[in-house]
Design goal:
The chain has 3 helices and 5 strands, in the order βαβββαβα. It is α/β, with parallel strands linked by helices.
């Protein structure tokens, strides 16, 4: 997975931190949070056109590694593509 940190202005990142905002990313595109937090939230859209995508087993494993790589108090993953229910279940039993 590519580790991409989106170019967010430093002042905005500071405001997000000061107000305990959660930086939503897309692990399926390799996006990483702009700052460390005890909560991680990733909306997974996949790499397909018009959300016509199903994560491979390796991509699911990588998503799991990203989500559990730090000591987060809460991890929220939201699947947004055609196989979202199936892939969420596959991740759960992984």
């Amino acid at each position: 997975m590519r580790n991409i940190t989106l170019a967010i202005p430093t002042e905005f990142v500071k405001i997000m931190q000061e107000h305990n905002m959660i930086h939503c990313t897309d692990f399926s595109e390799g996006e990483m949070s702009a700052y460390k937090s005890n909560i991680i939230y990733s909306k997974l859209f996949g790499k397909g056109r018009h959300d016509m995508y199903q994560l491979t087993t390796e991509e699911l494993k990588e998503t799991d590694r990203e989500a559990t790589s730090s000591n987060f108090q809460k991890v929220m993953l939201s699947f947004h593509f055609i196989g979202m229910y199936k892939d969420a279940a596959r991740l759960k039993i992984h």
